[in-house]
Please model this.
Amino acid sequence: MDFRNWFLAVGLLTVIGAGSIAAQEGVGTEPAVRAVEEYRMSPGDVVAVQVFEEPELEVGKVRLSENGKATLPLIGEVALSGLGVKAAAGVIEAAYRKGYLVKPAVTVTVLEKKRERFNLIGQVAKPNAYYFPESGTLTLLDAIGLAGGFTRMANQKVIVTRSSGAVVKIDASNRNEALKFRLLPGDTVDCRERGF
Model:
């Protein structure tokens, strides 16, 4: 094998190897991109708003009101609840374009996320109100684990009361069922005492 063919072969193997590694790691593949969801703002979140080359319009900290709005200079209240940071920036830019700025460039940053809570009462080691993790999702099994598990007196058939008033009965002794059931903000998990 001459020198030129050797370099060609090594180069080809390098490209093939890099392509297979990228495929294994999910680099550049659509499912890997879809796996990351953009955070959507909600009432109680704290955001910062910057307007490029307009320091008098910058807001270092603003808390979204109960109806999900932020009050900003010149434009007043802007609804941001349910939007990601890019969409929120677009809404604010559109509001500033209506008679104030020609080509605004807005950056929105979430400084604090409102932490949602749920309640665990009854026969668990540490009955209390707990915060949801940063991911925002929590299974019934995870929630019971946060509370230190069931007491010896617990009936593992728990009652979950949703903030809407709906009542759901779950058999937490069935691991699969407890892993599938997702808690929602405002839920109350009642772990009752076993009857004798």
In short: The beta strands are 46-51, 59-63, 69-72, 76-79, 106-112, 117-122, 128-131, 157-161, 167-171, 188-191.
